[in-house]
Amino acid sequence: MYKIPVIPGDGIGPEIINEGRKVIEAVAEVEGFDVEWIPYDIGADRYLKSGQLISEDELKELGQYKAIYLGSLGDPRVEPGILELGILLKLRFYFDQYVNLRPIKLLEGVWTPIKDKGPEEIDFVVVRENTEDFYIGIGDRFKGRNSKVQLELLRELYQVRFDLDIETSSEEIAYQIGVISKEGAERVIDYAFSLAARKGMERVTGVDKANVLSQMYGLWRDVFLDVAARYPSIETEFNFVDATTMWFVKNPEWYRVVVAPNLFGDIITDLGAMIQGGLGLAPGGNINPDGTSMFEPIHGSAPKYAGKNVVNPIATIWAGAMLIEQLGEVRAAERIITGIKDVLKEGKVRTYDLGGNSKTSEVGDEIVRKILGGVN
Ligand code: IPM
Ligand code: MN
């Protein structure tokens, strides 16, 4: 018996999460375990009514479970950043979900915009650091006299770095800093290497921008090399993030496990989602291996499609597979992935983003049918 808290969230969240639940219930039946869902009404509606984002009590309660199932957050009635920071990032940080695991895998029958590449070539995983870097976001905006004071403080640092004088008369300035800690880098890089070792993947690529942000990513590289030394049979390399975006398109087959700091990991996984067939097919897991993890599609709440039963639920269903794998139900997770693969390969039931006109719920139903039909 697994108790799983579920946050359907905003926009299309409730529709896609319904399909995910349906599919997990189907594999639970096949594998002989029970699931009890514990719904949480966290999101824009409640925020607009009561001003509550997520309460300390809710966080404490959620902390009793191994894995949370999340739909999507975001609403045009709420200023950008409020729900993201107050709910999504709050959950990731509160539960110290330091790994954001994002498989980039093109499944058979799915179109990729990359010419001459197929499922053989597009099959890797991005391990995104999920609690540090520029997501710390400490900083401020300074106007008028305050701006001048801040610039005076920065002048000397700037001079040491560039041997140039900084302009000190700006009307308004802003800065936000990023932080990489040795421990923070170590745990996520080690996760990437141990994943590679466990899955027999021969290479780990570290992503950074150490040629410019040499302090933060210099530390990141030092830690990477220390960790790599513990895994002598795994090949390693560094990629600058700009070059990574180029290589993801040109030679995706090169990659196995890619480990990236938070912000670069965010950016390259949207690109990854595109090459695997679109955001409708891209799942993610926010993982704390010793605590409470959280699984979600990497796309947003797509408000303009909300309530229409047309969006692709596969990213969420796939995230559900990652969730039950995290709970230890590896065979059940495999059954979900096989169900997704069968439906995509057959190509009869697919949503508009994949060139079809099936409904959200029809995709979930069809995956359930494959799962139940595949039992013998
Ligand atoms: C993601 C999203 C979030 C992020 C936003 C919504 C805060 O883009 O999960 O990739 O930047 O991590
Ligand atoms: Mn993102």
UniProtKB/TrEMBL annotation:
Residues 3-367 form the Isopropylmalate dehydrogenase-like domain. Keywords: Manganese, Metal-binding, NAD, Oxidoreductase. This is Tartrate dehydrogenase. Gene3D superfamilies: Isopropylmalate Dehydrogenase (3.40.718.10). Its cofactor is Mg(2+); Mn(2+). Pfam families: Iso_dh. One of its GO terms (molecular function) is magnesium ion binding.
